[in-house]
Amino acid sequence: MTVMVEHRSGPYTVEDLEGMPDDGRRYELVDGELLVSPAPGYRHQEIVAELCGRLRAACPEDLTALPAPFAVQTTAKTEVQPDVLVGRRADFTDKVLPVAPLLAVEVLSPSTGIRDLTVKKNAYERMGVVSYWVIDPQEPVMAVFELDGEGHYRQVAEVKGEDPFDATLPFPVRVVPAELLGALRETSE
């Protein structure tokens, strides 16, 4: 369930995030709106770990893949933490990625699904994140969005179960949604 920490007038800033409690929840900002999510579940985290491992193994040396939590802070009123992100090593600071990642991935959960497909997708589009992947862990199915020439997301693939997706952005890598379940794949068959 997404909750608001407090009501107040005016938008939040990234400075406000420093005062948020260390309670296991994820605190993010999109255009000054505070988004709070509970800790993700096991299935969600299994997919994040498997995907991040596969991306790291395929990354060119000048890029890196990281799992959440790691802040992408492109403005004073926007800080998000994609479940998995890929960025240029040279762009990272010790604490944040101050530019758009090349790839942002969100794994849906009951509390974040609608937001990941609307508010965060729109934020990533405005930032200029070239490729955005959304994974539904229940199916499993992966929707792939890429920026077009006008800077808008177009869905370029929907990949289900055992079907492979051969990504070209931000680098060549093959992703099979069912394989992202890791150990859970054997118990669910």
The largest sheet, given as strand count, sense and whether it forms a barrel, is: 6 strands, mixed
Provide the domain count.
1
Q: Please list the strands of the largest sheet in the order they lie side by side.
A: 3-6-8-9-10-11
- Alpha-carbon distance between the termini? 29 Å
The CATH class name reads Alpha Beta
**Order of secondary-structure elements:** HEEHEEEEEEHHEEEEEH
The CATH homologous superfamily is called: tt1808, chain A
Molecular structure report:
The chain has 189 residues and is an alpha+beta fold. The chain has one domain: Alpha-Beta Complex (tt1808, chain A). The protein contains 5 helices and 13 strands. Strands 3-6-8-9-10-11 form a 6-stranded mixed sheet, sandwiched between helices. It has a 3-stranded mixed sheet with strand order 5-4-7, with helices on one face. Strands 1-2 form a two-stranded antiparallel ribbon. The radius of gyration is 16 Å and the shape is globular. It starts with 13 loop residues before the first helix and ends with a helix.
Write the layout of secondary structure elements.
Layout: H1 14-17, E1 26-30, E2 33-37, H2 42-58, E3 63-67, E4 71-75, E5 78-80, E6 84-88, E7 96-97, E8 103-107, H3 113-117, H4 119-127, E9 131-136, E10 141-147, E11 153-160, E12 165-167, E13 173-175, H5 183-188
Parallel strand pairs: 4-7, 8-9
Antiparallel strand pairs: 1-2, 3-6, 4-5, 6-8, 9-10, 10-11, 12-13
